[in-house]
Automatic annotation (TrEMBL):
Name this protein carries in UniProt: DUF4880 domain-containing protein
Domain FecR N-terminal intervals: 14-55
GO MF annotations in UniProt: sigma factor antagonist activity
InterPro entries for the chain: FecR (IPR006860), FecR_N (IPR032623), Ferrdict_sens_TM (IPR012373)
Segments traversing the membrane: none
Species this chain originates from: Pseudomonas parafulva
Domain FecR protein intervals: 111-203
PANTHER family: PERIPLASMIC SIGNAL SENSOR AND SIGMA FACTOR ACTIVATOR FECR-RELATED, PROTEIN FECR
Length: 317
C-alpha cells in the first residue's frame, strides 16, 4: 500500500464502518439502503472496503470470546458500538493481531476440532467417548495417570468410563475445572459462558473463585466468573445437537439463533424485539437456510440477507 493510496483507503474503510453501523442498527430504511448501494458502486475502493467488512464479519465466529460476545450474542448493535467493533476488527493487521492470532492458534492447533456444521466423535486413550458439536475445539493431555481435557470453545458431550484408580478425568474450562470418574455429561463453552449438564453419574465442579461443589444426575450448572456455581434442573433436550436437532419448546428466538450459528459461516443476529419471540418445534441443524426461510411463516419477523456472511432477523412493525 503506497502513501498516495493510504488516505483514500482509510477514508473508504471509515465510510464502510459507518455503513455497517447504520445497517446493523435497524435504523436504515429503503432510502438509506439505496444510498449504500450507490456508495459501493461509486468507486472501486468503496467496493474493496465493503468486501473487507464482509470478510471481517465472516470471521466473527472465530474471534476470542470476550470480543465475539459483544457481536454474536448481542440482540442489536447501536451505531457507536458497531463502529467501535469494526474499527477494532479492521486493525487486525496491526497491534491487535497478536492477541487475535493467539486465540486463533488455539482453535487451529487443538487436538480435536470441528468446523462449520461439522459434528465428530473421538474415543480417548482411557476409553472416554467425546462428541464435539460444530465449531468446537479441545486439547487432550494424558501423562501417566493424569488425564486432562482443555476446552477452548464449543459444545462437548462426555461419556467417561469407570476406573479403579483414584485419578478422575479433569476438564479445564474458561471459568473453572470439572472432575469426572464415571459420568455422562455435556459442557457448553461459548461467548464466555460455561454450562454443565449431567445426565448420569456425578461430577465435582470448582469455579475459579469458589470451592469444589458436587453435581448430581439430573442437574445442570452455570459457571460464572466471580459468582461461583449456579445449579438448576437439567433441560432434557439440551444435547439434541448430537442427533443434529434443536428441540424448542417456547425457546426465545435469540437462543434458537445461537444454536444455528455454529452451522453457518458469518454473522447471524436479531434485534431485541425479535430475540424475545418464542419458537416451538423440532428442527434440523443441518438445514439452517431452510430454517431461516421458515421463520416468517411462524413468527412476525423478516429475515434480511445483507450478504452471504451477514444475516439479521428483525421483528415486523
Amino acid at each position: 500500500m503506497t502513501e498516495a493510496t493510504c488516505p483514500q483507503q482509510a477514508l473508504a474503510q471509515r465510510q464502510a464502518a459507518d455503513w455497517f453501523a447504520l445497517l446493523s442498527s435497524g435504523e436504515a430504511g429503503e432510502h438509506e439502503r439505496r444510498q449504500w448501494l450507490d456508495w459501493r458502486q461509486a468507486a472501486p475502493v468503496h467496493e474493496a472496503a465493503w468486501c473487507q467488512v464482509e470478510e471481517v464479519v465472516s470471521r466473527f465466529q472465530s474471534l476470542p470470546p470476550a470480543l465475539a460476545q459483544h457481536t454474536l450474542n448481542a440482540p442489536a448493535l447501536d451505531r457507536r458500538a458497531a463502529l467501535k467493533l469494526l474499527a477494532t476488527l479492521l486493525a487486525i493487521g496491526g497491534a491487535a493481531a497478536a492477541g487475535m492470532r493467539s486465540e486463533l492458534a488455539q482453535q487451529t492447533f487443538a487436538d480435536l476440532s470441528t468446523g462449520v456444521g461439522e459434528r465428530r466423535s473421538w474415543t480417548l486413550a482411557d476409553h472416554t467417548h467425546l462428541h464435539l458439536n460444530a465449531r468446537s475445539a479441545a486439547s487432550v493431555q494424558f501423562e501417566g495417570r493424569r488425564r486432562q481435557v482443555r476446552l477452548y470453545s464449543g459444545d462437548f458431550m462426555f461419556q467417561v468410563q469407570g476406573r479403579s484408580d483414584p485419578h478422575p478425568l479433569q476438564i479445564t474450562t474458561e471459568h473453572g475445572r470439572i472432575e469426572a470418574e464415571a459420568a455422562r455429561f455435556m459442557v457448553s463453552q461459548r461467548a464466555g459462558r460455561v454450562a454443565v449438564s449431567l445426565f448420569e453419574g456425578a461430577l465435582r465442579l470448582q469455579p475459579d473463585t469458589a470451592p469444589w461443589q458436587a453435581l448430581g444426575a439430573g442437574q445442570s450448572a452455570l459457571l460464572q466468573p466471580g459468582r461461583g456455581v449456579s445449579v438448576g434442573p437439567l433441560q432434557p433436550q439440551v444435547a439434541a445437537w448430537e442427533r443434529g436437532l434443536v428441540f424448542a419448546e417456547g425457546m426465545p428466538l435469540r437462543h434458537y439463533l445461537a444454536q444455528l450459528a455454529p452451522y453457518r459461516t458469518g454473522l447471524l443476529s436479531c434485534d431485541a424485539v425479535a430475540g424475545r419471540l418464542r419458537v416451538s418445534g423440532v428442527f434440523s441443524l443441518d438445514h439452517s437456510d431452510r430454517l431461516l426461510a421458515q421463520l416468517p411463516d411462524i413468527l412476525p419477523v423478516r429475515v434480511r440477507y445483507f450478504s452471504r456472511y451477514w444475516v439479521r432477523v428483525e421483528a415486523l412493525g
